[in-house]
Amino acid sequence: MSNSKIPAVEVQGLTKSFGSVLALDGVDVSIGEGEYFVLLGPSGGGKTTLLRVIGGFIRPNAGKVLLHGHDVSALPPDKRPTTMVFQSYALFPHMSVARNVGYGLRIKRLASKDIAERVDAMLELVGLAGYGARMPHELSGGQQQRVQLARSLVLDRDILLLDEPLAALDANLRKDMCLELKRLQETVGITFVHVTHNQEEAMTVADRIAIIADGKLIEAGTARDVYERPVKRFTADFVGENNVLGGTLVAVDKSKVTIDLGFGRIDVPVGDTVATEGVPASFSIRSELMELLPADGKLTNSTQTLNGTYREAVYLGIFISHVVTLPDGTAVIVRKISGGTENRRFERGEAVKIGWEMTAARLHMS
Ligand SMILES: Nc1ncnc2c1ncn2[C@@H]1O[C@H](COP(=O)(O)OP(=O)(O)OP(=O)(O)O)[C@@H](O)[C@H]1O
Ligand SMILES: [Mg+2]
After folding, report:
1. Whose alpha carbon is nearest atom 5 of ligand 1?
2. Fold for domain 9-228?
3. Region 241-364: CATH code
4. Which of 61, 202, 254, 320 sits CB 3.0–4.6 Å from 38 for a disulfide?
5. Is the CB of 47 under 6 A from ligand 1?
């Protein structure tokens, strides 16, 4: 790391529209040198556009891109310290693995001996030592993906931009490749900016995650931050399996607020949030932090409670999701480990009660 104070990537006020579509709407983001940074969000949110603006493939309407402190806004992709890994494998089908990996070095007119050495080193790094003579069609999807990575890494740029690099892989392979990507990034130590709409993938690889939706950066933080302490309602909805309930703020205390849902009042810790009485507000609680009991049962770990009607159980392998309907019709999910001792059977239509410890809830003012 040359100068850890200067971010590898700094984006200021980026705006990009395609016709009437506002793909990026004033995005600011700062990515540290050597950081594994993930852009996570729903389809159409602007992730690819942001990545392509950083790489120089798209010119923004407004805003700046600084890479290692230098304004690169006017530079084309090949004059930037970035290299991009595209979603499709995009290997040259008629070239061997080694020739694919060495392609960029041949363009730079390096000596063949140097190219061969670096190609071998890269293939070793991505776990494909000895595969140089194979043709792309003789490789599995995961192996092709690794060749693509090797082909990008061999260029020795400081910032690797990856757009949905694992999207074409099946779920198991995706998990393995996630761990490999993480290991690879730790080994080479350069900055990775990785786009995905897959939450588990994001949480596996990321040092930090930025939630991108509607052309905006909603919030950024570690995987734990966005999962356990989402600030925005959108993040709570998008990450994990949160129950988000909304109402009116009826009382604001130093440490907690009270939200009136119309069919019950709930206390929520206020944290650092600025809250004012009389305005709409919501809160979220992760489904696995909730208790579910018959209406006359005794809650053991909960200080907050609501009455509801049992709807159904959805079996998900490790988990069972119990669906409960609240008096206003909102469905709430209570997730339990399958086979756990507390998994009592409930009947559809049975009166139940849900509860949670106050500190499990997060307040969202927007
Ligand atoms: N070249 C283009 N011309 C017109 N509209 C575009 C173009 N590229 C992107 N858009 C629009 O900009 C918005 C953001 O697109 P973008 O590809 O950045 O989303 P994304 O977050 O990468 O989505 P996905 O997860 O589906 O890949 C979308 O509404 C998209 O239709
Ligand atoms: Mg995309």
Report:
1. 18
2. Rossmann fold (3.40.50)
3. 2.40.50.100
4. 202
5. yes
